Amino acid sequence: MRLRTVILLLSLVFSTDTLAKLYSAPVLTEAEGMLATAPDKSLKMTQNFLDQRRLSLNPKRPHTTNETDRTVRTPLNTTYAYLIIAKANSLLSNPTEAWKALEQAKEMSDANKLTMTKMDILYTEALLHYQLNRNHTEALRLLKELAQQFPEKVSRTPSQSELAFEAALLKADILSKKEPEEEILAQFDAARQELGTDPNLQLKVRLQIMLGNYFLSQQQYEKALSELLSAFWIASENEFVADIATTNISLAELYKQRGALHKALLHANQAAEFYEHFKLMRGLSRAQTLLANIYELQRRYNFALVHYFNALDIERDLGRLSQQAEIKVAIANTYLELLHYPLAEQYVSDAIAAAIAADEPSKLAQAYILQGELSMELQKVDQAIKVLNQAVNIVEQNNDRALLSRALKKLSFCYEVKGDFYQALLIQRRYDQLAERDQDRKQLQEAKSFKQRERVIERQLQFDDLERRQEESEHTLLEQKKINYFLFGSLCVLLLLLILRHRSANFRREQLNELRKDYYTQPHSGLKNLRMLNDRLPNSIEKSNAHFEQWYLGEMIHEPLSDRLRFAMFEVPFLKTIHMQYGYQQGVKLEKSLGDFFKKKIVEPSRMYHFSDNMFVLIEPQAYSNQEPSLLADKVQALVDEFLRTLGDNNINSNIRIGMAEYPFVPRAYTTINDQDLLDILLMATSAARQLSRETNKSEWVHLSAIESAPAASFVNTDIRKACLECISSGLVKVRTSSHLSINWQSVHGSEKIFP
């Protein structure tokens, strides 16, 4: 149960080396995700899947991941299970079992015509040729065949896209062993292209780790550091814990080679903690070995031996002879540093035996070189020459330049100690040639490294310049913000003042409207009065008063040079007696009703003014110069009659007295008669109409108008009434009335007699 919990946790936390197939069962997806970190557990899970379920050959059974029946497995599931077993056995160095599982997968796929598995089988076969047989040529041929079977990128399924990436990455790994650097980097770029514009981050991390490890193997440390750090931070941000551990191992190796042992130790410890926590023995063995290497470089040999022995115990449990041989060589070298020759000799012998059993020429050559060094320390020169020659022969066959250089140097020294200087010279020349080539290669790498550092420094300088500019921009922006805040605050204050001023202006305007209403409106009727015409204002404000009156209160004559108006002043006698007949309250109501009635009936451009208690002035535009005055009088009489009908009181006398005139009063002199003079003329006409009405006991009207040829000089007398009476007597002013009775103009004027 505990093992199952760990397996489930691992499958949920990370997915590594291979693909989660669209049609594989969930348990197979989990097993496939554990191949890189725990192939033994992956193999066990997959084998249990095959053993615990019976094969269903029902052709109608759907191939889905939603398993409703956990007792059966489909041919498709079975095929993928065999492929996982093949990969797991390959990682566990079980070639026979791996190839057997691959053949079973092929047979199952062919028998059930599972065309969708063909590309996966082809990829797995290429992988086995590379991992087990070291047959790079065949692996590359199979990958080329696989690449030809992929559809166009736009029509690929997600599973096919990931398989194309895996194939490209495997090809890059194969090429990295022997091919030129340009071809290798081109293949890594091809793998990167397979990820697309929106890559799967976990696949991107795997690509960066592999590319970083390649640069590390070529001692291109700057490039390796760039790729590995990028992979580390992406994995950390997305919690790809297995990839974090893998990156920690690579970073530890990089820092170890560069001499930054403290940082190397930090990354190696982090990786070891992860592998130990999840009991991933293969990764833990590698981390322990790396820790031991670092401690050995720090000359902390006791710590190094502890970790070497821990790693050796793990490898014995795993049964991996190749890793055992490598660790035993390292232990022997540590004992040699400690001058503990018996134990060093023991572990060298064990390492040679393990390397021979594992068929690992590289490990065997390392053991022979170390045995040669040990023999020299023990003064066994002939034995040292023998084993070093064996090491040289092995590394020449495997073309391992580093080991060959090391073996030649030791062998030359042995011949020199023996006294065979000619042979020592020959070996030394070979070593020098190899060292020269290595030096050329090192210089080339240093040149590349220098260019890389130069680019890094340039980018750093550009970055520093950008930072400086950013600081300046931020400072400028801060100052601008302060200015903006000040302007905004000032604007707010100004806006507040404007709002307060606007509210105050509205309040004053309302007060002014109320005052205007109270002052320029007759309090009883509600009609406009002519108060402004009767005011005598100081000269200092006469102009402003005239402007105010013209535009806001409505003078009788707005535009003296162009207005053509008809005026009717009429007296309503019943308003004098209404209060005595009906009381004050009813009288006020009646006056108010009359005013409202006039407001309703008189529409613009006509105007109505309340001149005095019972007198009103009606002003209308004069459309035609020959219009009969009786029409205006009839209109006024009709208004009064209609109002009285609305009251429904027949006891009220409807007689009215109307005085009428036109503006301009003098046809050829517009400005001779102003509005106040015109009021005097209207009062004279209304007084005459009152005189006639008293005699006839009915409504009467009187109309005054100057003749066409009347001179303006006749009306320049200071007393307009007197001037008007003189013009009436001389015939310059025509009088028309609604009655045939004569008018006593002397009583109308109320002054000395002007008639004989």
Automatic annotation (TrEMBL):
InterPro entries per record: Bac_ResReg_Asp_Phosphatase, GGDEF_dom, Nucleotide_cyclase, Rev_trsase/Diguanyl_cyclase, TPR-like_helical_dom_sf, TPR_rpt
Segments annotated as TPR repeats: 365-398
Transmembrane segments: 483-500
Gene Ontology CC: one annotated term: cytoplasm
Main location: cytoplasm
Subcellular location field: Cytoplasm
Chain ranges of the GGDEF domain: 563-706
Keyword Membrane: yes
Region forming the signal peptide: 1-20
SUPFAM superfamilies linked to this entry: Nucleotide cyclase, TPR-like
UniProt keyword annotations, A-Z: Cytoplasm, Membrane, Repeat, Signal, TPR repeat, Transmembrane, Transmembrane helix
Protein name: GGDEF domain-containing protein
Organism listed in the record: Veronia pacifica
